[in-house]
Amino acid sequence: MKIILSTVVNLISVPFLLANAEKVTFKVLAVKGTPSLNISGKQYSMKAVENMYPLYETSIDTSDFPINYNYILDYPDGTSVQEEFSRQRLKNEASLNEYFGRSVTIKEHPLLPKAFEEFPYTSHSNLFNDNYVATIIVNCDPNDLKKLYNDTASKENINAEVIYASPYHIRTFKSAKLALSGESTRDTSKLSYKLKDLKDEDKKDLFNRSSIKLRAEHMDPTFLRDKIYGDIANTLGVPTAQNTFARLFINGEEIGFFDLSDKITSKRYIRETFNNGNKFTTDVYPLFKGIRFTEQKLLSDLSYHGDDASQVAYEVYQYKGEDKDDTNSTVTKEHISQDLIPLLKEIEDYRKGNVKDLSLDIDTFLKSMALEFLAGAVDNFWNLSGNFYIFRSPVDNTWWFHDCDFHYTFGCNWAADLMLNTTLADFPPIMEDGDVGKKRALVDAIRSRPENEERLRQILTRLLLTSFHPNALFPRIESLVTLIREDAHRDISLPKVKPDAINADEYIFTLNNFEVDSTSEQGENDFGGFPIRYFIKVKARLLANELGIEVPSEYLSDLGYFNLIQSVTNTEKAAVASGAVNIVPFSILSVIFAIIINKILF
Known about the structure:
Blueprint: H1 2-13, E1 22-29, E2 34-39, E3 42-45, E4 47-48, E5 55-62, E6 67-74, E7 80-82, E8 87-89, E9 97-99, E10 112-113, E11 133-140, H2 142-150, E12 158-165, E13 170-181, E14 192-196, E15 212-215, H3 225-236, E16 243-250, E17 253-262, H4 267-274, E18 287-290, E19 292-293, E20 298-299, E21 317-319, H5 330-352, H6 362-375, H7 381-384, E22 388-392, E23 399-403, H8 416-421, H9 441-447, H10 450-465, H11 470-493, H12 511-519, H13 532-547, E24 561-562, H14 570-577, H15 586-601
Parallel strand pairs: 1-9, 11-16
Antiparallel strand pairs: 1-5, 2-3, 2-6, 4-5, 6-7, 6-8, 10-24, 11-12, 12-13, 13-14, 14-15, 15-17, 16-17, 18-21, 18-22, 19-20, 22-23
């Protein structure tokens, strides 16, 4: 019997059973070409995963950890490219969808401390997990795309298939729509886009979003200003469009690196932001966007200009509600008359002391103004009265101020010196490109009350002590830079889709521009503005001096930290697990088997 047992144990332990081996799966996203896995000079072919383009995978059995590897990409013309860096897989480490040519797949960032409690009506979306760069692939009719590029003023939506790929997911939307986005950005060589009707065959959307924007950030060599501004806004507890990062391909061509952002006018976004994701009892609610007519010196500062809705002074308010008509004129005037003008008159009465309170939430407005001032938001409400929305909730008829579009912040090249050095007492400054005065009806009305002025100073002080503190912000910025550096560098080197655009030569950046503007704490950058860190550091010091407060070296985190992604979803866990099934080590099996045999025989 002892001979039999010894024989069984020896058979279990022989090399052909691959003692301690694990099945390890490798997955990589490759939009073009066919990838293979390279481990110490030995190549393993990879197969396309069915219905999961552009994902390829292969599995090997090994007990040799850690595994050092990279990928090789073979193109149809016979050429091949090997990654210039080495990846490493540890024992029992999950298998993610890696991206060919990018060494950073997942990077968790330091969180910002909350300045105030979170906005209570928002249901967050895991689409804006900023620990990775997503890949978006758009396939459409080349002729339709050419028409868009030939007429960049077009508002047309064209049919498109959209594929969203992340380290965890592959989602395909075959009946989506593609359109150009933005206003002045349509005259640049790198265009911005919007995608809508993101519903798959099962009518499921993209993480509670059916419409998104892909913002080119063509004026910001760091690609970070919009993102950082939104991060700080989240800590303030104000309604905020979320954003993260994505690389974009259209019809197989690499377009570039983009800010993936919420589309504020989307019905789904409105309910997710202002009603915890629940549907409103009505589909019709007032939503206006404020713009400006600089030549006419007309600002959307929420001034009251009488009851005649046809006045040119009211044309700076674009109606964005669900019931807008094609020309947006008749319906707009009706809503200006019925909804907007009563609010503007109420603001005027508040300034005069004729009413005690406003139907617009004052606290979130003051928080938004505090951040505009601190971040040097040259193109927003307080300075030039544009790039904002106001929305009246059908739940309780409260008006909410919603800021937007923050690429011209933190010292970006537009009146950067004025934004940095103008004091709170003198803000807004007189702009060099045209005197539009200093009157801002809503700001002036609210600040006319001493209790509101004191609240503004409290908010600014709290920001300096928490999320606008350099020791809180700089580690997060550094981490974000590490995540996006390879994609930002790649974008700078790519040809643009509209090289003949009117403003094609206005913003041409180098790799050094990205590095200096995103990492330096020194003075001016190479294109007339200030590096982000320098602006934050100096602005915080100047305001602390003006307010007469001392900011300690350690920031406050008494309310905890803002974390948009509360936890990894079950879908993400399943996606990881599907590529990381670990085999029980054979040495353990041999012991178990030996014990069983011993019990049976003896």
